[in-house]
Amino acid sequence: MSEESSTPQRTSSGVGVLDKAAYILDCLEAGPASLSQLVEATGLARPTAHRLAVALAHHRLVARDIQGRFMLGPRMSELASAAGEDRLISASGPVLNQLRNITGESAQVYRRQGDWRVCIASAERPIGLRDTIPVGTQLSMRAGSAAQVLTAWEDQARLVEGLRNSRFSATMLAAVRRRGWAQSVGERERGTASVSAPVRNASGKVIAAVSISGPIERLTRQPGRLHAEVVCKAAHQLTDALRAR
Predict the structure, then answer these.
(1) Greater confidence, 2 or 231?
(2) Pairing state of beta strands 70-72 and 192-200?
C-alpha cells in the first residue's frame, strides 16, 4: 500500500512535508511514542517518519526520552510561552510603575530569546539619574540577575550550556532556586546592581524575569536585602495575570 493511501484522512494544507510533520506532532501530543508507534499512528512510511522526527528534533520541536522514544521537545513550551507575550506586556505596565515607585529604581521585564534576554517592558525613574534599559534592548545571558533567573530553572542541558563562560556559577543558581530571586553587583556592568525574580506561566514554567536596577551607591552591595521582597511580589502579580482566564 502506498504511503499516501495509508495515511489517515486529514485536511491538507497543500504542503505535504509540513502536513506530515504536523501528523507527527499531533501523535506526540498524546505522549512519547516509539518509531513503530509513530508509523502506526500517522500512516507514514517508516523512513519518512524517522527522517521527519529527526529533523524536528534538530529544531528542538521533538526530543527523546530515556527510553529513546520520541516526545514533544522544549521548543514547544517556549513557543507556547511566547504566545502569551502580549498578555505579559499589557500586565507589565502598571506592575512596573508600582515597582519603580516603591523602590525608586528603574524596573524591567525580560524574556529569553535564544542566547539573549530582551527587555519587553520598562519603567524608568522620572527624575535624577536614569538607569533604565529601553524596550527592545538585547542583553547577554551570561551576566546579571535577570540572566540568572532565566537560566536557573532551565532543563539540565540548557543550564549546563548557560553556565559556560558566564559570570555566575552553578552554586549561585542553586541559591537562586532556593530563595526564589537573584541579585547581581557589578556583574553585567561596572557600578550597577540589580534584583530579579521569576515570572511563571500557567504550567509553572519560568518565562520571564522582572527586575530593578540602579547604581550600587543606592542599591548597596546587598540589593536583595533591600528589594527582594517587593520584586518577588511584582513577579507574583505578573504570574497571577498570566494564569488568569
Answers:
(1) 231
(2) unpaired
